[in-house]
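Notes continue from the previous slide.

Worked example: a multi-chain complex. Inputs as given:
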Amino acid sequence: GEQVEQLPSSLIVQEGASVLINCSYTDSASVYFPWYKQEPGKRLQFIIDIRSNMERKQNQRLTLLFDKKTKHLSLHITATQPGDSAIYFCSATNMGYKLTFGTGTSLLVDP
Amino acid sequence: DAGVTQTPRHEVAEKGQTIILKCEPVSGHNDLFWYRQTKIQGLELLSYFRSKSLMEDGGAFKDRFKAEMLNSSFSTLKIQPTEPKDSAVYLCASSLGLLGGRRAETLYFGSGTRLTVL
């Protein structure tokens, strides 16, 4: 089955810095890649997604890049704020119901 | 708040007990998921319902885990008997599902139930 790996597992940055979270998957049939965020004590929430017919998608300070050939995604967050501190999850699906999640990247933004 | 509601927020059980976790999905959503979240394994799918029909019964979780959806607005997850390795956060999520022939994939998660089995 599909496997999703995220790196790094954790990172700490100063407020205002940019961060890059990498995600790789194994199943070439996967075509949809939503990302979720879990702030401390809060529920998981959707933040951005990309489909396999796209290479790039931007939503305010978030930019998601997708490389179908290498089965790799990267989430770029610019001008980080303490409110960005959370665990970020990459996921993948072949457009069935089953999302396979990565193990998460814990981001701490120091003010 | 019209989001996914899960109860209880915390549950402590003795090994061998039966526990029932509850979930109310977002009104109008057709798909409902139960996930287990642990630091080591991450998010694992336990069950999936589409329009109240069980589509995924959890594979390795089948023997002691049973999810039910008696109506479109309520689901339960029963763990019987509980074991210490079941200690985790259990998440319920819902989505619109098929909408006009196109699958609406965004999941809306509940706050979870933190289960501790002693």
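Summary box: Chain B is about 0% helix and 60% strand. Chain B has a mean pLDDT of 90.
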